[in-house]
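Q: My labmate handed me this sequence with no annotations at all. I'd like to see what the chain might look like in three dimensions before we decide whether it's worth expressing. Could you predict it?
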Amino acid sequence: QAQLVESGGGLVQPGGSLRLSCTASGTIFSITTMGWYRQAPGKQRELVALIRSSGFTNYGESVKGRFTISRENAKNTVYLQMNSLKPEDTAVYYCKQGTINWGQGTQVTVSS
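A: Here is what I predict for the chain of 112 residues:
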């Protein structure tokens, strides 16, 4: 099972931007669906965005128009560009490969 390493989280003011990265080990990255999910305290984990090997993307309703998922297969990396961040975007963000492989998560805090 590939290891997923996330980076890019942190503290940002409302209206700001962050870019998350998730790099996977292994050789099957280019053919797998990659996704970002998030979990806020006391809430269920929810889909933020996913990108299939074809490049097809899907977004959660609350982030449409603000977040963009992309992938760079040559680097085994998937990105999440987050713009116009809101306090309600505060959560631990998890990278997911395929159906069962999860990263450890990275904290995103949006606060003034």
